[in-house]
């Protein structure tokens, strides 16, 4: 039985390019982001991987990334579950602000704390701990049971929602996961044993 889970952060978005805090805002992909998503599909195809079921967030940058990956795989008819439980971390009052402007307003140290601490949220937003509290129950109730039942699952989501999943899967601490960088459009392939232990992890960075 093939217990396969692939996680992929969306391709570069318009707001990534502009150095803006994005969160639950809904910009589309740049041309580079479209190319990254297509390249992700090509990498998965080169490995001979296919899927039975997909999950993504309620935000179009992740949904478009998934659609482009599936087009490269020739699997555009797969069932897709879209749920805001997989949305990016909500940056609250920082959403839409240029990161340099935010540093001028609140100070570099404070903005760094909001971005890189595990449990301190920005004003009106979520910390990574808050994001994990939203993402992990959904993952454990829906996604992981599909994987353990032998379905090959692809998840296209966001840097911080995927960090929450990786923290759980790899048994990392909050301090360890905030240091983990996830490149846009790079699939991470996990295979699992019958007891849920990770048999292998492959990062498909170029």
UniProtKB/TrEMBL annotation:
Q: Which SMART domains match?
A: PGAM
Q: Which residues form a coiled coil?
A: none
Q: What is its EC number?
A: 5.4.2.11
Residues flagged as site, Transition state stabilizer: 158
Residue positions of the active site: 10, 88
GO biological process assignments:
gluconeogenesis; glycolytic process
* Catalytic activity annotation: (2R)-2-phosphoglycerate = (2R)-3-phosphoglycerate
Q: In which pathway does it act?
A: Carbohydrate degradation; glycolysis; pyruvate from D-glyceraldehyde 3-phosphate: step 3/5
Alphabetized UniProt keyword annotations:
Gluconeogenesis, Glycolysis, Isomerase
Q: Name one GO molecular function term.
A: phosphoglycerate mutase activity
Which major enzyme category is it?
isomerase
Q: How does this chain assemble?
A: Homodimer.
Family label: Belongs to the phosphoglycerate mutase family. BPG-dependent PGAM subfamily.
- Which HAMAP family does the entry link to? PGAM_GpmA
Q: Which purpose does this protein serve, as stated in its record?
A: Catalyzes the interconversion of 2-phosphoglycerate and 3-phosphoglycerate.
Would you tell me the protein name for this molecule? 2,3-bisphosphoglycerate-dependent phosphoglycerate mutase
Source species: Prosthecodimorpha hirschii
Organism phylogeny: Bacteria, Pseudomonadati, Pseudomonadota, Alphaproteobacteria, Hyphomicrobiales
């Amino acid at each position: 039985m093939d217990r396969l889970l692939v996680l992929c952060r969306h391709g570069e978005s318009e707001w990534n390019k502009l150095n803006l805090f994005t969160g639950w805002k809904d910009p589309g992909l740049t041309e580079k982001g479209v190319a990254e998503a297509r390249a992700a599909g090509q990498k998965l195809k080169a490995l001979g991987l296919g899927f039975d079921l997909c999950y993504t967030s309620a935000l179009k940058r992740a949904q478009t990334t998934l659609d482009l990956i599936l087009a490269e795989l020739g699997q555009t008819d797969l069932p897709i579950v879209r749920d805001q439980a997989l949305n990016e971390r909500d940056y609250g009052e920082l959403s839409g602000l240029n990161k340099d402007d935010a540093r001028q307003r609140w100070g570099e140290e404070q903005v760094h704390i909001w971005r890189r601490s595990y449990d301190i949220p920005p004003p009106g937003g979520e910390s990574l701990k808050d994001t994990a509290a939203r993402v992990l129950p959904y993952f454990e109730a829906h996604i992981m049971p599909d994987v353990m039942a032998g379905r090959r699952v692809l998840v296209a989501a966001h840097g911080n929602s995927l960090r929450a999943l990786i923290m759980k899967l790899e048994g990392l601490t909050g301090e360890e996961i905030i240091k983990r960088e996830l490149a846009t459009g790079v699939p991470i392939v996990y295979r699992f044993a019958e007891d849920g232990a990770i048999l292998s992890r492959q990062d498909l960075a170029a």
